[in-house]
Amino acid sequence: MDLTETKIPEAPASTGHPKQLYMLFFTEMWERFSFYGMKALLLAYMISELKFDEPKGYAILGSYAALVYTMPMFGGMMSDRFLGGRKAVMYGGVLMTIGHLVLALPQDWSFFYGMAFIICGNGFFKPNISSLVGTLYSDNDPRKDSAFSIFYMGINIGAALGGLLCGYVGQQIDWHYGFGLAGLFMILGLVVFALGKKSLGDKGLPPNPVHLKAPVFAGISREVVIYGATLLIIPVIVALFHNYEVMDYIMFGLGGLAVVYILTFALRNEAEVRNKLFAALVLTISSSLFWAFYEQNAGSLNLFAMRNVDMHVGGVELPALAVNNFLPPAWVIALSFVFSQLWPYLNRKGIEPNTPSKFGLSFVLMGIGFYVFYLSCVSNEETGLISLPAFMAGYFFIICGELCISPIGLSMITKLSPAKIVALMMGIWFFASAIGEYLAGKIGALMSVPAEVVDNPVLSLPYYSTILNQIGLWSVGIGVALLCLGYFIRRLMGEVR
After folding, report:
1. Angle at 72 between CA 421 and CA 180, to 5 degrees
2. I want to staple 373 with a disulfide (CB 3.0 to 4.6 A). Which of 39, 43, 319, 394 is the partner?
């Protein structure tokens, strides 16, 4: 019997989660090890090794992160219309592996080209691995939010290990060894998926295999054309890194097109579909602001940790890059089980917050976390160094906020989107993250420290504290606004919570 053509039944709630969830869990875990391990090194590598000035480093980091989360729109579209989730995940994983290994080469050309391969690969991999999780459950299955919380824990186990090991190897031993280590674990993620994909049954297959294999011209199939066209995008992305100023027009132009597309599709459908898409659009746009604040972790907070956090524990100085990139996913790992049990428990009691309320709470909690950073700065102006426990406490609140929006957002998209565009909508969800990542680079640049004071923590601290305070205040304000609007958004969502 060909398992790829066999429809697998959804597991009843009494049996727990289907086994396919855990195969996808481990695939994503090792892919995120490689992705976040590499990302932990980028800004510090550009400033300390490539000698870019800080505003340029922030601009390139923001452009890279934005493109990483823009490409899933196109990868999601190719999956919905042609490839299916499985082929998209495999092809994306291969491209990302190549990118990590290219970054490991100590060559002048390798830095931008390696990032370009990763960007294209992530476009195919990221939306489709998440969409495959959604296919394992019906829309109103009470396990669905819990499943995405478990899946999200896998993401963060990989991110914690990647940030810790690659951050340590890159900063303490050799930058290119750190990039290479990330590539090895990307290969491991591909192997896990290749061995387990048949267990998905009919999930993630191409929507029309005959159409996909049909020749387009000169005997070349549509599938090969998609793969080849993706490779042609790589030198274009490299050119964008050299001319990052044009990213303003690209990001906000694509953002406008995405909004117009969703509105046009919604207005052509019946009221129930239209209202759900309107709700998804409001929450998706708000998420971009969340990531603009949150993603200071990979940028300004990396440098803040290196310059203004006392990393001494028991007479030993911990490597700042490894600590900063380990803390957020480590908190997620510690708290994911709590949140994965919390939502079903509150659901059984009839008091689970609805999705808009969870989004509002995420901003409030994140704002508290940034305000903890700010208060620590104010109370340590004489030394210029905040304590490691205070740094950890700030991240605790930020991660509580993250767990109220990121896994919930993934689940929300699969619930509110029509089946025929769910992967594309997942891509648009990640594009909102792209806008947030790009804005994060601009916010981080506001904390650029002049070269003459980078080694003096007392003088560098004010460059961070002022903006950290403003991030905290804006985040709390947006959260309160979402909580107030929650009733109206909830009505648009219909029966979906």
Report:
1. 150
2. 394
Give phi and psi for 19, each to the nearest 5.
Answer: -65, -25
Residue 467, domain CATH: 1.20.1250.20
Whole-prediction pTM: 0.79
User: What average pLDDT score do residues 91-113 get?
Assistant: 90
Q: What gap in Å lies between CA 181 and CA 33, rounded to an integer?
A: 9
Q: Tokens for 491?
A: 């009505």
Residue type, 338: V
- In this structure, what token pair is assigned to residue 17? 């989660």
Give the DSSP letter of residue 417: S
- CA distances (Å), 193 to each of 117, 260, 287, 328, 477, in order? 20, 35, 29, 26, 42
Q: Give the position of tokens 């090991």.
A: 165
Phi, psi (rounded to 5 degrees) for 221: -75, 160
Q: What share of the chain is helix, strand, coil (3-state, %, to 5)?
A: 80, 5, 15
**Residue 161 in domain:** yes
Enumerate the β-bridge partners of residue 221.
Answer: 215
Angle at the Cα of 279 from the Cα atoms of 81 and 69, rounded to 5 degrees: 50
Q: Which two tokens stand for residue 405?
A: 């929006």
- Would 296 be classed as within a structural domain? yes
Burial group, residue 443, by CB count within 10 angstroms (0-12, 13-18, 19+) = buried
Residue 146: inside a domain, yes or no?
yes
pLDDT tens for each residue of 346-370: 888 888 788 888 899 999 999 999 9
In 3D, which of 445, 441, 320 has the Cα closest to residue 54? 445
Tokens of 489: 């958004």
Q: Is the residue at 11 inside a domain?
A: no
- Which residues contact residue 172 at a Cβ distance below 8 angstroms, ignoring those fewer than 6 apart? 319
- Is residue 317 classed exposed, middle or buried when 0-12, 13-18 and 19+ CB atoms within 10 A define those classes? exposed
In terms of phi and psi (left: phi > 0; alpha: psi -120 to 50; beta: otherwise), the region of 494 is left
Q: How confident is the model at residue 496 (pLDDT cuts 50, 70, 90)?
A: low
420: containing domain = 18-492
What region, left, alpha or beta, does residue 218 occupy, with left being phi > 0 and alpha being psi -120 to 50 degrees? left
